[in-house]
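This part of the workshop introduces the protein records we will be handling. To make this concrete, we reproduce a full record directly below:
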Amino acid sequence: MSDLNAARDQALLRGIVARDPAALRELFERYASAATALAHRIIRDPMLAEDVVQEVFLSVWERPNAYQPDRGSVRSFVFTIVHNRAVDRVRRESAHHRHARVEVNNDGQPAIDDTVVDAVYLAERRVEVRGALAGIPAEQRQIIEMMYFDGMTQRQIAERLALPLGTVKSRTLLGMRKLQAALADPAEGRR
């Protein structure tokens, strides 16, 4: 069944290269829901997630030759773009909010202390996330990394690792709970 889906996706991409809007529409119908779910998991804002998915399919329409069959399936291609754009959007929104909060000196320049505090916080948070990831069992870490860094769905991971889908879901849930606990702000628990 997955070979048939892959062949159909390849045909749709050839249609997009030939500028057939029906091919783009069908590709969108096949993957928009899962792509939006992936974007929403990363961004946590349904409107921004939908914007990202629209941008991704527009970029597929504008640059269909960016797909390289030797690097994976059309589905993986689309989800990788969704993942990357969603992460970029989170970074952009975060930077926008940080810049909006930066105090300005009398000469109109940002206060250097705010910039330093932001840089230190982000560096510390990166170390915390890496440490939390390193602290969970390898089989859970592998699945979380495949989901978030490779943009794969749980079904794709199950196929790739030859595991039952239920096992992948369980490991994801357990790993995410451990990450959440490891990254929880101790001050939050005291409130």
Remarks:
- The chain has nine helices and no strands.
- The chain has a mean pLDDT of 82.
- Residues 74-101 form the longest helix (28 residues).
- Residues 1-101 form a domain with the Rna Polymerase Sigma Factor; Chain: A fold (CATH 1.10.1740.10).
